[in-house]
Every structure is written in structure tokens, then in C-alpha cells.
Amino acid sequence: MSSSSRPHKPQSTLDAFISSRKNPISDPVFTSREIHDRGSLFVANIYHANTQQEAKARVDQMKAIKPGRSGLGGPEDFELQSGSKDDGERWAGGKVLNVMETLGIIDAVVIVSRWYGGELLGPARFTHIEECAMEVARKFKDQEELVELRALLETLDDLLATLREEHQQLSSSASAATAPPTDSPQEASSKISLKKPNYTSLDIPKARRLIRAREGAINSVKTLLAKLRENSDKPQIPE
Q: What span, in angstroms and rounded, lies between the C-alpha atoms of 144 and 48?
């Protein structure tokens, strides 16, 4: 957590405060709504932080290679490192870190800033700090989940297209084997060509529904393929 006394020229968000500094840090992934209480202002920002250097530039949580490991030995080479800084507001950093750990946020840093309004808030300040941190952390987690769901959908689409093409080829072979010969046989070759869907505007509920639909379609095509293979393995009895 970082805290600061109110600047001479009031600024409504942490973004404005950051942009006024000589060395501004990168834009946050999400910014919480502002919480005002008796003159004090609370706002949280969450940033990506994939390396120790990036995390130190903000403060908080990261995934790092264990001492003496190369990172090539698999998951066991990595450890989850976390930390917090109160920056003058005792226990506040731990409150923010607890929010991140509760939601399982990794490779990110959350900064909650407070502009002091001149009146002591007591324990209420920690409620505001946690609320701001929770808001951006939930949005961050939803975004990460959506990225994973989109990637899974694209993988399922590719698998389904491959299975459908295989089904078409087996069906064509089976039809050709049972069809009577002709004077001018023609080789029928058609390839399934499907335009890849655009998932950029997808939300989490719809992504989950589409994944269930793709999985159902994949299982159906696999069942059809199994029947075709079973029939193709049976000896053909000439008429």
C-alpha cells in the first residue's frame, strides 16, 4: 500500500497522481472506484508484475525462480513470493495482501492510495482499503479467467474441426467402397472450412456455455467416428 498526504492541487484519481510524477509507472490493469470518508480518499490500482523487478517497482506479489534452480526443471523450480508494505499506514499492507491471497491473485501488484483529509477514521480506514483492493482484484481475476477460457475455446474449436474433417474423410471412403463403379469415376474431395469465431467480446458465462457446447459436439463426433471405424473393420461380403 502507498499513502500520501493530499497534494496542493487535488487530483481525483491515482492515475492523475502517477502521471504527474517524473517517472510514471505503467497504466494499471484496473482502478477501483474512489471511496470518500470524512475528507479522506481511497483508491486501488492493480498492475501486472511478472518479474521481481516489476514487482519491486510497484510493491507486492510475484512468481520467482527458487535459489539454485534454473527454471527448466518444471513447476518445482518456482515458488510463490509475496510481500507487502505499509508505507506509513500500519497493518494496511497486510490487509491488501490478504485480499490477493484470498482470491489467488498472482503475477500482480495492488496499490491502495489514501489522500488524508485531516480527520482520523479509525478502523473504518481498513474497511475502505480492503474494499478498494477487493474490487480491482476481482476484476483482474475475471480478466485472467476470461483469457484462459478463450484459449480453451480456441483449442476445442481446432480439435472439433480436426475430428469433423476425419469424419468426413471416413464417410467419403465408406461411401466410395459401397458405391457401384462408373465409367468415369470422379474423386470427391471436400474439406471442411470454417471461419474461426471471434471471441474478443465474449464474457465469462457465455464462454463457459460455449465450452460445454464444444465438448458435447466433440463427444458426438468421436462417437460417430468410432462407429465408422467399427464398420470399416468388418469384412466386406461381395454381393
A: 11
Q: What is the pTM of this model?
A: 0.58
Q: How far apart are CA 11 and CA 64, in angstroms?
A: 35
Q: What residues have CB less than 8 Å from 204, skipping those under 6 apart?
A: 142, 145, 146, 149
Element (H, E) at 19: helix 14-19
Cell reading at 133 = 483492493
Q: Which amino acid appears at position 40 of this protein?
A: S
Measure the CA–CA gap between 183 and 108, rounded to whole angstroms. 70
Beta carbons within 10 angstroms of residue 57's beta carbon: 14
For 82, phi and psi rounded to 5 degrees? Answer: -140, 160
Residue corresponding to grid cell 492493480: 46
Closest CA to 131 of 145, 121, 119: 121
DSSP state at residue 77 = G
Contact 70, 78 (CB under 8 A): no
Residue 195 three-state SS: coil
The bridge status of strand 40-48 relative to strand 62-65 is unpaired
Q: Give the separation between CA 236 and CA 67, rounded to whole angstroms.
A: 65
On the 0-12 / 13-18 / 19+ scale of CB atoms within 10 A, 234 is exposed
C-alpha 150: how far from its chain's center?
Answer: 9
Average pLDDT for runs of 10 along the chain of length 239: 36 42 60 79 76 59 54 62 71 88 86 84 89 92 92 92 90 69 48 72 93 94 90 62
Contact 48/108 with Cβ under 8 angstroms? yes
Q: Please check whether residue 137 is in contact with residue 100, taking contact to mean a CB–CB distance below 8 angstroms.
A: yes
